[in-house]
């Protein structure tokens, strides 16, 4: 059996995000349309030793139990009773505190890799159940693609692939801690609420124009650093058919039908010093990288 698996952990965007309630334990109840995109981290998992060891760029992420990939591994061993022991190496490309699910994608990749390496064959639903106890986005990231997601992230309704397009992601030079973003939303008197059902219906119909008209994020309000809204408007100025913040920020994305226009916008953003990535929708959250097993 292979001892090491190397996987791509894809980022996600929120085509629509609404907050529809709050549980007694304080967790917010979500209604979202989520989409995997081709920006990814590379995660290598080796079955070795008798502890969980994390390796990578310590300036980009913590290399201990604060890291969601470390916590995902611990949750897997606790749930399955398998002997503890793995080395996880993460090559980061997805920025943190951006609303792109980078850490959750890494955690999902760890669960998928350990399931294969340990021969437990738990399947997607059980991996999602384990992941839900670690991070709200992990259940979606395990399968990825396009889905309407509810509850605290554990209710997943697969949707058809979103209409083909180019997705330009821009990350302003500001971070938005998730806890602070939720606190600001809770304090807001009249947040703008998207119609998540309309967004999901546009995806089902395969209508790019209707999808562009239905993007929205309830967490994108005037309580956020102004640079986020300025960047969203900049994407529209550069030719995006629609633009929206993803997650709790700080990244925003624009949808383009024309590749050439999207590439031109990418160059202009990069020339201005804005971290940006041109992506396509992808149909999975985790998949083997080139030379994925050894």
From TrEMBL:
Pathway: Isoprenoid biosynthesis; isopentenyl diphosphate biosynthesis via DXP pathway; isopentenyl diphosphate from 1-deoxy-D-xylulose 5-phosphate: step 3/6
Gene Ontology BP term (one): terpenoid biosynthetic process
Residues at which ATP binds: 95-105
Active-site residue numbers: 12, 137
SUPFAM superfamilies: GHMP Kinase, C-terminal domain, Ribosomal protein S5 domain 2-like
Coiled coil: none
Function: Catalyzes the phosphorylation of the position 2 hydroxy group of 4-diphosphocytidyl-2C-methyl-D-erythritol.
Gene3D superfamilies reported in the protein's UniProt record: 3.30.230.10, GHMP kinase, C-terminal domain
Record-stated family: Belongs to the GHMP kinase family. IspE subfamily.
Keyword annotations: ATP-binding, Isoprene biosynthesis, Kinase, Nucleotide-binding, Transferase
Protein name as catalogued: 4-diphosphocytidyl-2-C-methyl-D-erythritol kinase
Entries under InterPro entries matching the protein: GHMP_kinase_C_dom, GHMP_kinase_C_sf, GHMP_kinase_N_dom, IspE, Ribosomal_Su5_D2-typ_SF, Ribsml_uS5_D2-typ_fold_subgr
Superkingdom of source: Bacteria
Root EC class: transferase
Domain GHMP kinase N-terminal residues, every copy: 67-145
Domain (GHMP kinase C-terminal) ranges: 201-273
Catalytic activity: 4-CDP-2-C-methyl-D-erythritol + ATP = 4-CDP-2-C-methyl-D-erythritol 2-phosphate + ADP + H(+)
GO molecular function terms noted in the UniProt entry: 4-(cytidine 5'-diphospho)-2-C-methyl-D-erythritol kinase activity; ATP binding
Catalytic activity, EC: 2.7.1.148
Upper classification of the organism: Bacteria, Bacillati, Bacillota, Clostridia, Eubacteriales
């Amino acid at each position: 059996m292979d001892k090491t698996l190397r996987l791509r952990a894809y980022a996600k965007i929120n085509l629509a995000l609404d907050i529809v309630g709050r549980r007694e334990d304080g967790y917010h109840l979500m209604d979202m349309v989520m989409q995997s995109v081709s920006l990814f981290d590379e995660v290598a998992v080796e079955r070795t030793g008798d502890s969980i060891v994390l390796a990578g760029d310590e300036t980009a992420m913590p290399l201990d139990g604060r890291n969601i990939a470390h916590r995902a591994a611990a949750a897997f061993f606790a749930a399955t009773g398998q002997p503890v022991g793995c080395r996880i190496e993460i090559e980061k490309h997805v920025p943190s505190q951006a609303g792109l699910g980078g850490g959750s994608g890494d955690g999902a990749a760890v669960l998928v890799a350990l399931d294969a390496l340990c021969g437990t064959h738990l399947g997607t639903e059980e991996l999602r159940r384990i992941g839900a106890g670690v991070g709200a986005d992990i259940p979606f990231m395990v399968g990825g693609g396009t889905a309407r997601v509810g509850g605290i992230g554990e209710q997943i309704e697969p949707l058809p692939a979103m209409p083909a397009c180019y997705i330009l992601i821009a990350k302003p030079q500001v971070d938005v801690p998730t806890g602070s973003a939720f606190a600001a939303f809770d304090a807001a008197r009249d947040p703008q609420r998207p119609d998540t059902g309309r967004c999901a219906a546009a995806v089902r119909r395969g209508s790019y124009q209707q999808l562009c008209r239905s993007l929205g994020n309830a967490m994108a309000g005037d309580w956020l650093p102004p640079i986020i809204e300025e960047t969203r408007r900049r994407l529209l100025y550069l030719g995006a058919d629609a633009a929206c913040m993803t997650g709790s920020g700080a990244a925003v994305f624009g949808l383009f039908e024309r590749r050439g226009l999207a590439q031109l916008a990418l160059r202009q953003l990069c020339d201005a010093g804005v971290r940006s990535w041109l992506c396509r929708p992808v149909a999975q959250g985790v998949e083997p990288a080139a030379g994925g097993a050894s």
